[in-house]
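B., you asked whether I could sanity-check this one before it goes into the benchmark set. Here's the sequence:
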Amino acid sequence: MTRHVREDLTTGVSNVQATALLLGLGAFALRVVVEFGIEPMSWRLSFVPAFAVYAAGAVTALAVPLLAFNRLCPRPRPAPRTLLIGPDRGHPAFVTPTSPWMVGPFVIMLMFLAGNGLATDRAPDGDVSISAAGWAQTVVTVALIFAVAGWTLFRGPRVELRPGGLLVRTVRTRFAEWEAVLASGPPAPVEKPRQISILVRRQQPDYGAYVVRILHRWLAVDAAFLAGAIRHYVDNPQHRADIGTRNELDRLIASLDF
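And here's what the prediction gave me:
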């Protein structure tokens, strides 16, 4: 794995994130068009034709951005067999970023649904408008949904390999010191695996262990490569101090090249 490939991964992730964000904004704009244009037009029809017109408009408004994303951002095959160097030099790490190819459609749908948060009023003549109080409610609702979409896209699920241990972030964030991860780390995933499971010893005075699950389908990394990297640092403590450096990443990739 060359440095050029890693740079391509960084650029690819950024480009797909930007594409998902722009298409999400487009989906929201189309939803607004449906709300202010197509829906009032359907009110002049009987129930069945009105429902058909509204449903066709809403489905089209969502389908166009989703199809565009699928066409513009095909998932890389095979999955990337590399990690990224963490941007925070104060906390060196190898990072598996959130896969924008996986969360992109979810973000687009979420931003589309933000259009449902428009606090519109229907006038007797059929016109649609937003009152002053409605604008405040609309801004808060849309901003909240957009914030969730942005967090999912840019700060969503990820795994960080740090000198001191392993950080796994999903809905919650869990950190396990390398010494607490049971010997040999996680097994290599089987064909079409759904997750990587890591068994971690509990800290004293507790006994036993607990499982940390990595849903790698949401990560921009090959599952077998990630499992191998975790096993490597569990079994080779002498290499942990160099985690977060380019030379160590080159050495890790060379050692896992199979």
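One thing to flag: Strands lie at 84-85, 94-96, 120-122, 128-130, 158-162, 165-169, 173-177, 196-201, 209-214. Otherwise nothing jumped out at me.
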